[in-house]
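<tokenise_the_fold>
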Amino acid sequence: MSACDDVRTARVLEAELAAEEHAHAATCAACAADTPAVALVARRLAAHEVPAPDGGLRARVIDAASPLLASHARRAERGRLVRAVAVGLVPLPLVVLLDVLLVRYLDALLTAFLPRAVALWLVADYAAMLALLLGVTYAAIPVVATAPLRRLHAR
């Protein structure tokens, strides 16, 4: 913006002119010629009253914005879910490997002290429990990942 524009803007907004703007206004013919028009604009702006919004404006704006906000929320929820599942799947091969090694070690240990049928039953029971815990843990990832968004939608 030019110095003339700065002076005009300050005068229209009825703001205090800075020292360099006062100096410019005192020496500039264009600013001096614009003074009556700028004063008229400033008076008209000052006299204009902004009407208060009607009571239904808020509801209409929310109704108009709801579909767009809902689509953005679904997109954000989907991205959050994909990231959570991806992060959860990264250690899965290591977890499964450790579980298999643990079951094999438990089988060898129990077979040394117990009859084969009892050891097999205990190892199978333990392996089933590990599989159940692993399944429940990974099934909880989407629930936990989307919980903050569900709380936000509930409000």
Notes: The CA atoms of residues 102 and 111 lie 14 Å apart. The chain has a mean pLDDT of 83. The chain has two domains: 3-47, 73-154. Residues 3-47 form one domain.
